[in-house]
Amino acid sequence: MNRPMITALATIGIAQSLKIPIKKAETGEWDLGMFFETGGMPSSHSAGVTSLATYVALKKGVPSVDFALSTVFGLIVMYDAQGIRRQTGELTIKVNEMDEELERLSGMHAGVNHQEKQIRLRERLGHMPEEVVGGALLGVLTGTLSYLLSGNSRN
Predict the structure, then answer these.
(1) What is the pLDDT along the chain (155 residues), one digit of tens a residue?
(2) Which domain of life is it from (predicted)?
């Protein structure tokens, strides 16, 4: 059994599940679809990679190559989650707003046609920094818990 991988995958599932009651607290409405959405609190990307790095640090030690690999990989994933993917989401919001504005303007001018998109582009792609930190804290918790439940032997 690959406990570090199971720990990371279970943590991703936990993070995705937590998005549902958090969304309920924010909006007052249950949205089970949040389980399958990107973005939101906590970042499942951050939670998964941090749980892996935490488990590896406790099992193999901070000086190990395994910890170095999981940490560098994790930092790249977290940077991407709140950096590049967040910027893409911001850009998508602008594109959707431009499409709405074009539709409005085309209705004001005879002979101008604009074919409205049937489906808006998905705007929620990345994370706010606090969502990344929230996911990382969850990952430290679950990685530590998994290690403690495994019997604590280093090898």
Answers:
(1) 799 999 999 999 999 999 999 888 888 889 888 888 777 789 999 999 999 999 999 999 999 999 999 999 999 988 887 776 666 767 777 776 777 777 776 666 655 555 555 666 555 656 778 888 999 999 999 999 999 999 866 65
(2) Bacteria
Q: Is residue 58 in some structural domain?
A: yes
Closest CA to 57 of 150, 144, 149, 145: 144
* Domain assignment of residue 44, given as a range: 3-83+126-144
pTM check: above 0.85: no
